[in-house]
Structures
1.
Amino acid sequence: MTFLPPPSETCEPCDPPGCVVLALPREIDFCNGTGLLPLIMTAVDQRSDGLRLVVVDLTATRFMDSQGVRLLDEVRRRLPGGARLRVVAAPGGVPSRVLELSGLRRDVPVHDSVKEALRS
């Protein structure tokens, strides 16, 4: 259950003011899905002053089941007012397909790269 980079570290210069970028592990499933939520929310809380955008990077994630969908939906609901969630997932990868099949992709924008997610 490792973030890439750890959520307590800023990712300079890719974390512009008001933004936090969090890379998630290679697998998100029943074994680690619930444990990731407090880690993500701790990182969000550390940047909550003026936070406007949270980017969750799934490009290194090779497996994700419904726990990943549940995790992203819960993060979206717990974000402070005015903050938005965006997801980065490789086109054609498992996370991208799971987000499409679950319908979460309608509520959370999914981008091909962190740079694109920060720019939009």
2.
Amino acid sequence: MVQPVAVHFDREGTLFVLSRDASGIVTRLDPAGGRQLLTTGIMRVDNAAFDDDNRMYVSSYAGGGIAELRPDGEIRQIVPQGLVGPYGVTVDLGGAVYAADHYRLATPEGNELTPYAHGIVADRGQLHVTSQYGDVRTYDPAPRRRAGEIARPTGIAVRDDGVLVVAEADAGRVVAIAADDTVADGFDTPVDVAFDGQNRCYVSDESGVVHRIDDGQPLPVVEGLELPQDLAVRGPELLVVETGQRRLLAVDLATGALRVETTDLELDLPEQSRRALFAAGLPGCPRPFAGIAVGPDGAVHVSTSGKIVRIPQHPAT
């Protein structure tokens, strides 16, 4: 059996073994010794239950939802699947949207299993992904590990020379992966990085500040924010998700002028974001994070509670 995760008896004494693989295999073992493999197509099935009529229902921890699994292997979706977070979001040059959704990468082609995906950026035909549990990976399209043992890597960006730059939240610094050096330190809780057209690096710090790194030193650009998280550059502006106020801000990179792009985003509030990242040495609950990306048409994509919202470009920008 492949990665068995749960076992259940139905009301007639038949044993079902659930496997947490990409195909969603359920193995049926009847009392007479018969064996049947049912391929549900539900990624990461994790539990099952039977009603009074012995109908079987299964769930998925990766994509959510509940489905009825019939004896012939067909499924009937009862509760639709959706996004678990989502967290980081990115848009490639063709306008395709990708989301880092903790247990998977949600892509236009389907879902790619990945352990604890958090930050994501598309660049030069590749996807670069961080995990809050310490890893950075590149998908091209097969995954390869770029770095490990990083103290809660969150946001990620690509410098114009191709070097990956990552916000190392629990170390209070920003690191360059390929160059294996520290770009800047002295932050409180840096959670995202972004580069403008002049290759200047901006860093959001959940303490309430957005910095620009000048000569290796953080220089405050905007202060007094409530839990700023993801960043994105759109032309002459830096877009900031201010999670504590559930709004999207735009900062003029030339003048520093600040305006509100949109309000009333469905974002987790600060008191909901202090979950234990580890429990008894094992991965715990992912911490909420509001991701943002700008498409080729200037539209903004924001990851909110269980979905990605598309916001058309403001007429004034």
